[in-house]
Amino acid sequence: MNFNRIKMALYATYLTNRYGLILKKTDSSAEKKRLRLEYAQKLLAALHIDVVVKGKEKLPKEGRFLLVTNHRSIIDPLIIEVALKETDIFGLWVSKKELYNSFFFGIFTRNAGSILLDREAKQMSGFFKDIKSGVSEGNSIFLFPEGTRNKEASDLSEFKEGARIIALKNRLPILPIYIRTNANDVLEAALQNRPKQRHSITVEIGELIDYKERSVDLEEAYRKIFDLDEKVVLEGAL
Q: Is 122 helix (H, G, I), strand (E, B) or coil?
């Protein structure tokens, strides 16, 4: 591990836990949004990473949505926060149990505005109840429909079931966002010993998808919007 990695690991740990404790004292969604953005900007600035947003004109200024985005890197939530900085959209991130219990992310995840997804739970009724409660309070829902980070060579891995159900049950228009640049590769480059070298990540905003379009396959629609490779369907797959 090089010196820059050690330095960034220490700084990121400090910053994450510091903002986690500040957010713990914050109830306002608007203030949570401000603090999450501030945290994201500080950490990305330390990494010398810039976020470029394409299709800004498609981005609503306010409202409640199911935001879906691809997932390759641990900094993806930060990228989305920055992409939404000129809007009033605040969302609760669907976060897996491992993040809630993480030494690094735990305090921040529990306090920044999130909904726990426990894949080992026998029933998901509590999860969907939390979603409904969050939406009724005026919040959007932010989700990685791939379920976990895509470590494959493909542009996108298979979407898990659930995103469409969340949109339908809560009457949420679906806001598709695609992180075009492989953020994990950029993060790795930023952690090398190359001080002050700037890096760029491009994010694309897609057209809203109507939650009432039951016949539309969300993954296929997402691929079409961002001109990705077609979804591969295996014959005989369950």
A: coil
Say how far apart CA 100 and CA 163 lie, in whole Å: 21
The span from the CA of 224 to the CA of 15, in Å, is: 38
Instruction: Tell me if 113 sits within 8 A of 36, measured CB to CB.
Output: yes
Q: Using a cut of 0.90, tell me whether the model's pTM lies above it.
A: yes
Residues near 65 by Cβ (< 8 Å), separated by ≥ 6? 89, 91, 140, 141, 172, 173, 174, 175, 208
Residue range 130-176, pLDDT digits in tens = 999 999 999 999 999 998 899 887 899 999 888 999 999 999 999 99
14 burial (CB, 10 Å; 0-12 / 13-18 / 19+) is exposed
Q: Could you give the domains of the chain? A: 3-225 (3.40.1130)
φ/ψ of residue 191, rounded to 5: -85, -5
Cβ neighbourhood burial of 37 (10 Å; 0-12, 13-18, 19+): middle
